[in-house]
Design a protein that fits this description.
This protein is of the alpha/beta class. It is built from ten helices and twelve strands. The strands form three sheets. Strands 3-2-1-4-7 form a five-stranded mixed sheet.
């Protein structure tokens, strides 16, 4: 196969982004042929969200059929919050109407009604991020990669020995829910002291406000750059908690590289230097040596490229594998 056409979708709580991409064998970046965005409209309910997802796919598929001679769709990759357990979506807090839905089955039926038939691959969005960065981005050339998305929450994806690692039920990599200090803030899931409730952007801001900070509409960037004593104290604490979290990741997975995505990843080099030093302080030196902690290279595009990569890997690597 000289090249293949695939569709990649990144499904978020507010928007669905999709690409039609042309991919060649190997790890070269696929060429985006067409991009489509539309609102998720999660508040409108399950049927509306499924229809919106299908509509993005149909738009991309229709463009391919009309504009590309001999067009054939080789696969559709989808990245979403949560994971499939027994065929049903679990842990989808940003699109609660999809909880428990047999997502692959429902979406496949919807697509068949529109005469779209192609293999469908569905993964957690953090897995898609890690896969994209390992194939095309900052972790290219490394076999053991941990992707960490630090935004409103914290998610993780694992590519171990060059392959996506899913765990028993498909939920491996939910590192945001590791307990790193039980004395800490209550997480959105209800437990206390999780990595997410210490170090995600939302909780950094909440800790800053609780400590008496006075910045209006504080976020990690404003707090990081502030000369205020409270801000400096909160950031010092944040580096320490990142260090504990990353030391646990290093001990558990012995990675070559940890790649950060999400809004917090856009902080300057000093942030990376500080969390790297904290990680080395808390990790076993034999395991921490030579582990890189770096910013992502693909930015906001990592999600759709990772979703497309699910289908690309199937085309060129393991066509008999299932996601």
């Amino acid at each position: 196969m000289r090249f293949a056409y695939v569709i990649g979708l990144d499904i978020g709580g507010t928007k669905i982004e999709g690409i039609l991409a042309r991919a060649a064998a190997g790890s070269s970046m696929p060429k985006v042929v067409k991009k489509v965005r539309m609102p998720t409209d999660a508040a409108a309910g399950r049927k509306a969200v499924i229809c919106n997802i299908a509509a993005v796919i149909a738009s991309l598929y229709g463009y391919g059929r009309e504009s590309i001679a001999g067009f054939r769709l080789s696969g559709i990759g989808i990245g979403t919050a949560g994971f499939l357990k027994g065929g049903r979506l679990e842990m989808v807090p940003n699109i609660p109407c999809l909880m428990g839905v047999r997502f692959r089955d429902v979406l496949s039926r919807q697509l068949l009604e529109w005469e779209i038939a192609a293999p469908l691959f569905i993964e957690n969005d953090s897995i898609c991020f890690a896969l994209a960065e390992s194939m095309f981005g900052a972790a290219r050339g490394f076999r053991n990669v941990v992707g960490v998305i630090v935004g409103t929450g914290i998610g993780g994806g694992l590519v171990l020995e060059g392959r996506v690692y899913r765990g028993r039920d498909g939920g491996a990599g939910h590192i945001g829910h590791m307990t790193i200090d039980p004395s800490g803030p209550k997480c959105g899931c209800g437990s206390k002291g999780h990595f997410e409730s210490w170090c995600s952007g939302r909780y950094i801001a909440q800790r800053y406000m609780a400590a008496g900070g006075r910045i209006e509409e504080p976020g990690p960037e404003k707090i990081f750059h502030s000369k205020e004593a409270v801000a400096k104290k909160v950031m010092k604490e944040t580096y320490e908690k990142f260090g504990i979290g990353f030391a646990s990741i290093i001990s558990a997975f012995n990675p070559d590289i940890i790649v950060l995505g999400g809004g917090v990843s856009n902080l300057p080099r000093e942030f990376y230097r500080n969390i790297g030093m904290a990680a080395k302080k808390h990790a076993n030196p034999a395991l921490a040596k030579n582990v890189k902690i770096v910013k992502n290279r693909l930015g906001d595009s990592a999600g759709v490229f990772g979703a497309a990569a699910l289908a690309i890997k199937n085309c060129y690597s393991y066509s008999s594998a299932s996601s």
